[in-house]
Protein 1
Amino acid sequence: MINGESKIARLRWGMIGGGRTGQVGYKHRTGALRDGTYQLVCGAFDLDVERGREFGVNIGVASDRCYADYKELIAKETARPDGVEVVSIATPNFTHFEITKAFLEAGLHVICEKPLFFTVAECEEVRKIAEAKGLIVGVTYGFTGHPLVEQMAMMVKKGMLGDIRIVDLQYTHGFNAGDDTNASEAQKWRTNPKTSGPTFVLGDIGTHLYYLSEVVLPHLKIDKLLCDRKAFIPTREPLEDHATVLMHYDNGARGHLWVSSVDAGNMRSHRYRFVGSKASLEWTDSFPNQLSYEVQGEPVKILHHGMPYLEDETNAIDRMGALHTEGLGDSWANIYLWIAQAIDAKKRGDEAFLKTHRYPGIEAGTEGVRWLENCVRSADAGAVWVDFK
Amino acid sequence: MINGESKIARLRWGMIGGGRTGQVGYKHRTGALRDGTYQLVCGAFDLDVERGREFGVNIGVASDRCYADYKELIAKETARPDGVEVVSIATPNFTHFEITKAFLEAGLHVICEKPLFFTVAECEEVRKIAEAKGLIVGVTYGFTGHPLVEQMAMMVKKGMLGDIRIVDLQYTHGFNAGDDTNASEAQKWRTNPKTSGPTFVLGDIGTHLYYLSEVVLPHLKIDKLLCDRKAFIPTREPLEDHATVLMHYDNGARGHLWVSSVDAGNMRSHRYRFVGSKASLEWTDSFPNQLSYEVQGEPVKILHHGMPYLEDETNAIDRMGALHTEGLGDSWANIYLWIAQAIDAKKRGDEAFLKTHRYPGIEAGTEGVRWLENCVRSADAGAVWVDFK
Amino acid sequence: MINGESKIARLRWGMIGGGRTGQVGYKHRTGALRDGTYQLVCGAFDLDVERGREFGVNIGVASDRCYADYKELIAKETARPDGVEVVSIATPNFTHFEITKAFLEAGLHVICEKPLFFTVAECEEVRKIAEAKGLIVGVTYGFTGHPLVEQMAMMVKKGMLGDIRIVDLQYTHGFNAGDDTNASEAQKWRTNPKTSGPTFVLGDIGTHLYYLSEVVLPHLKIDKLLCDRKAFIPTREPLEDHATVLMHYDNGARGHLWVSSVDAGNMRSHRYRFVGSKASLEWTDSFPNQLSYEVQGEPVKILHHGMPYLEDETNAIDRMGALHTEGLGDSWANIYLWIAQAIDAKKRGDEAFLKTHRYPGIEAGTEGVRWLENCVRSADAGAVWVDFK
Amino acid sequence: MINGESKIARLRWGMIGGGRTGQVGYKHRTGALRDGTYQLVCGAFDLDVERGREFGVNIGVASDRCYADYKELIAKETARPDGVEVVSIATPNFTHFEITKAFLEAGLHVICEKPLFFTVAECEEVRKIAEAKGLIVGVTYGFTGHPLVEQMAMMVKKGMLGDIRIVDLQYTHGFNAGDDTNASEAQKWRTNPKTSGPTFVLGDIGTHLYYLSEVVLPHLKIDKLLCDRKAFIPTREPLEDHATVLMHYDNGARGHLWVSSVDAGNMRSHRYRFVGSKASLEWTDSFPNQLSYEVQGEPVKILHHGMPYLEDETNAIDRMGALHTEGLGDSWANIYLWIAQAIDAKKRGDEAFLKTHRYPGIEAGTEGVRWLENCVRSADAGAVWVDFK
């Protein structure tokens, strides 16, 4: 159980974006600052520089370390002996690649929002730079820090489901069921291919589904895939506000996935079902503290977080204990902790640790973009089957 | 509210199949005998003639009206002045066509299990005979008699969902997750194309999903469809124990559907979600007495059966009243009542009534088979898009 | 599994009350007529004699066997060679005693609504008559026919809960949250002590809780009890629309119970929790097809009706089979079947069968009235503890 | 919506208890350190001084500010110019009074676990000291920071429920269903009156129910009360592991409450139902992000946290936003923030702010102890009604 004890030296941390008008910035800070593993020392929080500075001061950053943009941040911070070590990027998608490269080249670790970049080629380029520089790139797939996600991965690993047959994924909501006449800035950039990249909901929410399924089923690879996408609000074209994806895995398993932001009134967020020859698991982010374990012919079992019958690996990352609810902030805290542990290992040159350490890094980010590329290739060819590559 | 009062003369009713070793026969009798609309007068209940006769007597049929097979039933009953008027067929799929034709030609109304026949051509042939003879063919889509199914249809009709955008359907269970080594007879014929027809789960459970969606969305037609099917237990090939279907509707809506009998441990039966531009409805057969009505931006509303705020049409078919649960038997009772009303109208020559009367008849049965034909055509061509025809 | 087969000769059955304006009459008919165990041959369905006759004819009773009242019914039916054998009483509480006695004295079996009578003394008097005449008195505690109620009783009997410690019962709704200005006739008689007896909600819904708890925990007896009752709508005084009852059982267990008809908006009907030293069971009539079995320190287990892992006794009374919902009508059908089996045994003189046969009879009805007497005695003394007697 | 911005100067904060072997200490740190409102500068974390020092260092406290006990902490810290300002007490109940008094007399604000002290007299004494010194005493009723608790309070305040009639409270679990043979230290002190005070579960979990009901229903006062308590594990006597409490409020409302730690297998934690003449609210800590709002005669409404239709006061304290789960840590963060705001106001002499500011302070702690005193008085007199005083 996590109680905040740590041997890792506190990381000097900065943020790009995540200011007053954004929503995700607070999740980054909630995750990073939970146990003092990170210390927020600087940032370029806002396109409106003065508003960004005021904001930074209000959250405890020294005024002179609230910068106009990432370039100024690099210039000033790399000149300090106590300069920032790792920076989180919580800006629109189209800026991720440029900013990440700049930070890596300046010798700083990076934590970036998903979808990571626009293309796999960009991911590969960044991966090479990071490797060459000995730096970590973390990707904030923020839902995968829940203990019961680890529990699912462990149960699959131990063979409790048998051979995996079916992967059923859904992440839908209705917050974009209306048109974008009064859309916020955060909404506007998401439906413009120049700022959002080649997808809207596939990248915005679908990548969460895909990464979590990879965490639970690391041994499964997609052979081929079919993606059917559509913009129910035509101004969002050529991007999509709704998509279905069918997947054939290399072991013969079948996957299907539904993402939508026009699923009017749906408040159930995301949902995962993993079916094996012996048993199934079902989990939803809406009620993350319980997990349904269903063995054919037996009573359905509801597992609760924090209980001794869970795997040791599950309880090792529990924070609140049985009967006490964990929320998304607890999951983000685990994600940020795991990235910190990766940075610490990288600093120490402990590649053995990194080989087995689970955290959403450049590989995870790359695979998410690869999945999106395949989806778009299928969809744009008329929702046809494409070999996954 | 239904209280059993009726002006329809009691129908003399018989059954083919549905004996001691079957499960579905009891559902037919529960539906038919609920309010005395039908009187069970004869049957050929079992391939084992003596067992069938003993069974018939135990459920109140005269010994001499327990017949060896449908042919004897026709011969003897049509010779009686008080002979049977309508017969239900609860035998394996491959017998439906032959038996239905024989009954119609003998001047008897028919109520048949789904999937109705193997081909649309057979359906068309039967339809012509029925029309020529002035007889009704009912199909026991037994889940569509629940009051809240009617409520969904009425809400869609009144425009409360806006334009329909998404149709999300699922009917999965895990009772065939293991292989068929110890399969019952009822299971064996279902996985043999000679006895089951061109599909297993698509026909066995998928047609329920499709018909219910037609009841709720009568104005939507499928333009094209893609079906991906698979037998996780290879001995079931070329039939499937798992399938996904994507559908494009003529109004631009998107549909997706999942059927499986290898969804290990899943006890949630079937589930329907209808998403419109304004609101969504979600209903499941597992908890048929409540309906989730979700308007984007408003609290989720849970509607309960039997309440005054429901549509008049909904409460007109309620049997138990608010707070008192209805089950599948109540739904079957409505289906059988509606078919009786159709038979009664046909007898009276009341075609005006029949035009607007909702009941699962030959058209519903035909459309189910048509949908299966399209699914198989797509699947067998490699899970490609096919124009619906 | 029940499939309608029976060796019991069909009982000639009549009803007092239960006509067009009542709600409960249809539940009686649904229960009795399900499998042809009873045949409805006569009735006095309505205080409005003509309406009652029209109603009777519409539900299939011969016009000349639709009587003006129970006295005429007795006079005419006992004069027939094929006269009625058993009569159900679905009239207001204050009439139960008089009508029951009259039927018993005329040699007819009786099935009566709960609460049975006003006093234990009346119950004892009726019991003596029934015993002397060799007749059965059934009481329609209609919720106790659900298979999972039997499952709870069997699990307790087998010691799976350990020593019973806590009994937690609730049956509340809000249909009387407003005052009675526009109350229906059915509501008016319930809040008048002359017609309802010494209680309103305690008798109307609380007796269901108490009887079901007796079925599950037959070995527990109440030592003492405290009842606090109140009429939130003052015109209902001295009767109550809300009450809480605390109970001490003879084994040291503690019970608490809440009944209310002013629990605004509550649609969850009744709920039962039985806690033992090893495990607990929780079941609700709202979702009668599943049962929560909770062993401390293990995952919560959800049991579904119709599954092979249930007790044989449970599946013996299942009607629809796994995955197919049962509703209140199925439970009533079991109750009526069990009463028919009791009548049949009584006719055959099979007292051995009657000793172990579970059905809600005169003892159950008496114990319900006894419990009400103790509740009222406590409440009227100022909600103090009273020894149960 | 809370995003971490603050104008309050960071408070220098210390802890007594809450070390490696405790569970609640991490909840305090999660709450206090969330947004940098507090800075942990010192502590006496453990009776095992060395283990406490190692722990303190691991969570970022300077080694020389990890003290042996609260006395040393006071001595050393009050001598520093940058000494601690506020201290949290997470030690067994019997130490609360002595330590709180010592800190107040040393001029430090205090945040203390519940139940606050053993007697109302102790509470009054502490209140006087705090007032004289101009210091705040906060009490960590950690569940009352959830946004939907605020929503309930606002809806009651606006009259959306009408007159309150029924208060139904439950906090039960089964973690003490077995005996205490292998009990942890944390468990042992809780069942010993010397260390736990006059109650076990009533104080340990019942006070949470009571305080939350006060937050939602501040206008209701208890007139009289009856408490029935029992130790199912006899070694816990004279304390209780199970209790029921009946309450009469001054407006005529009725309350009932159930607390237990022998409710085997129950994982639903606490549950609240507030019933008014118009509508009801139901909320549970197990699923804190949704609230059931039930108006009689209307569909049940499920409200979700973070949605625009909630009260402004509710959304003002939301942290994660709609669709993103909040957990117990988010609630504690609000509690600690509110106490910080109280301390800040006290420092500024802003008594007007303090008059309307909701936070669990000395009054809340006192009322909890008063409620326990009344419960014990009733229970020990034989579970009789007592006037609340």
Protein 2
Amino acid sequence: MASDDGKAETRVWTAALVIIGDEILSGRTQDANLAYLARWLNLHGVRLKEARVVPDEMAAIGAAVTQCLAAHDYVFTTGGIGPTHDDITVDAIAAALGRRVVYHPDAEAALRAYYGDRITEARLRMARVPEGAQLIPNPETGAPGIRLDRLFILAGVPTITQGMLRGLDGTLEGGRPVLSRAVGAWTAESAVADLLGDVQRSHPEVQIGSYPFWRDGRTGANFVIRAVEPQALDRAAAALAAALRAEGIEPVEGEI
Amino acid sequence: MASDDGKAETRVWTAALVIIGDEILSGRTQDANLAYLARWLNLHGVRLKEARVVPDEMAAIGAAVTQCLAAHDYVFTTGGIGPTHDDITVDAIAAALGRRVVYHPDAEAALRAYYGDRITEARLRMARVPEGAQLIPNPETGAPGIRLDRLFILAGVPTITQGMLRGLDGTLEGGRPVLSRAVGAWTAESAVADLLGDVQRSHPEVQIGSYPFWRDGRTGANFVIRAVEPQALDRAAAALAAALRAEGIEPVEGEI
């Protein structure tokens, strides 16, 4: 059926992530938000197509955000929205987009409620937003995330980032999620590269990725098939399994 | 002494990393090369100033590499140099740089030596390089990395990537490494944001980053001071410790 071949998908929604922070680029901190955001976006029918890591510098943050906004439907940033001097994400984005920075009254109220009489000017910095922004609830601490139309400014601490994403559940327009199915095999990927290429060419409605590994002294590979149509996945997986068996290699359903 | 203030550093060498692979952008695989490369580069006096993650698409790979080459002294790529159909890094970079793809005779010899009579056309794909390239030894498997002047095309599997970087030890011209020193404190960063900003402003020769955490029910933060001059680090760390003590907060030498 033609409608199984992914042609029903008339529009692909894409997103970019801008990871802000010297601590990532120095190797001090391992990013833990990209993979979580990628899977969260896919559930909403949006593909993460690009990510950038930039330092805590106004120009670098501004350029990455504006370039990503020009190329994708949605842009997310993580990091740099705390109370300290190195938290310059809001200022950088406002400057790049030509907006003033203002105190959002609801954010100020949330921070005053959270901190009580421990509120300070530094803590109130977290109520500063580019003019016209909406807030994204933060169930972990008082400082909200910020939404500016299709730009989402999130915290960098993963538990807080994830809480903010939960607050965005169901609010993004998207297309169909990408489904995936893995076929594993105890073989070197280079030994099956030709048959893999053949299956890819005869199934253009899926993407097949090959991910080799070495484990316990054995060579293996997982072949991950991705498509929006479950029938397309099934057909490609069956063709790949048959091609592997024809070479005397027993396929394993799912990742090894 | 004026010579302590980082002014002796006349040139800062910078690098970018382009991480290539649908598996990173889908959330399937966690990148493990950025942090390692960042620390390796710093030992060579080069700062990782930007990283991008791009899908397995010719145009996206080409654009990221050419833009990063225009902006930085060195560019590294990881991923997409294996034997399978989804390994298109060499083709994408050659196309973007207007070079032909050729078989490198030394790479072909290395692959033939490694695989012996198991050599196949797919495995020989790993000898393909943009014309004019040099090889980077791969101590793990037969497939070498590729150097094109100030562009380094590395494998994506971390053990192989790291082996290739060891082969590059001492071959990059750089400046002075960034030194870092951490001061920890059991306090909310927002409680000390003002004093932190004061210390930063009075020590412009260092960068101070603030990294809050929550652990075992307690709030803490590590303040990481970075500079090329050890004396500048010492001065800023002493000033920060004194400022914390003045607020009744005991500083902890090193990261908590």
